Amino acid sequence: MALSSSSYYSSSSCSISTQFRKKPTIFASVSPRNALFGLTSSSSSSNSDDSPKPSLSVSADSSSAPKARFVARRTESVSVRPLERPLLEYMSLPASQYSVLDAQRIERIDDNTFRCYVYTFKFFAFEVCPVLLVRVEEQPNGCSINLVSCKLEGSPIVVAQNNKFDASMVNRISCDRNQSNSSMQELKSDTVIEVSIEIPFPFQAIPAQTIESSGTQVLEQILKIMLPRFMAQLVKDYEAWASGDASRQPLGTGGI
């Protein structure tokens, strides 16, 4: 299931970048609640008022330097044909029974905490690879994936920003319990990411609005690429679980 942190939906919820899947009691990775992990992959490139709001944030020391703020939101849904084992039962699995969808990009820290390596992308002329530490909060028939901490890897000027930004993220995945008797059911992922960062000196000649526009476009592109991929893997993992497959092998290979 996906990872999420609050009962944002009247249906079950579970919240992104990074990819997990649920497995039977023998699971040692992440599962449907892995919607958050749908944001993870590797590559060398690349709003409404009622939208879910970040509930956790990671802050760094502030200074008098000008700041830029990036915000991206995306909702992704996929139709699922329920099998002999109900989708709602799959969505209700505890985090300890999750299975990592992409073992090359997701690392389990404990039952509810995971480290996620987002793919490397270009921001202006610099390479950036966010490394996220996220925690899963279980909810009825779903979950919430919340950001605990974030570290930037990549070009030296990017690494130097690790003490100069605030970040928050929530990824919720939901399955409407009212559809439990329907021939088709819907899985839904609702994700919001917000970053506030001090503008490095070499960029201060660039208008803040231009930097914010570029940063927001990068975040939106990450969600656009990774969420559909994660949701597709989640459906495949549900089908494996429903068939009684106890192996629950990771579906991803680290690529997009």
Can you walk me through this structure?
By secondary structure, the chain is of the alpha+beta class. The protein contains three helices and twelve strands. The protein has helices at 87-91, 156-159, 208-242; strands at 12-13, 20-22, 57-58, 67-80, 98-100, 106-108, 113-117, 121-123, 126-139, 142-154, 165-175, 185-198. Strand 9 (126-139) and strand 10 (142-154) form a beta hairpin. The longest helix is centred in the C-terminal third of the chain and has 35 residues, at 208-242. The radius of gyration is 18 Å and the shape is elongated.
Could you write a compact summary of the structure shown?
The protein is α+β, with helices and mostly antiparallel strands and 256 residues long. The protein has helices at residues 87-91, 156-159, 208-242; strands at 12-13, 20-22, 57-58, 67-80, 98-100, 106-108, 113-117, 121-123, 126-139, 142-154, 165-175, 185-198.
Assembly level: single chain
Beta-strand content bin? 25-35%
Spans of at least 5 consecutive residues with low confidence: 2-62
Radius of gyration: 18 Å
Helix content: 10-25%
Main pleated sheet: 10 strands, antiparallel
| Record field, number of beta strands | 12
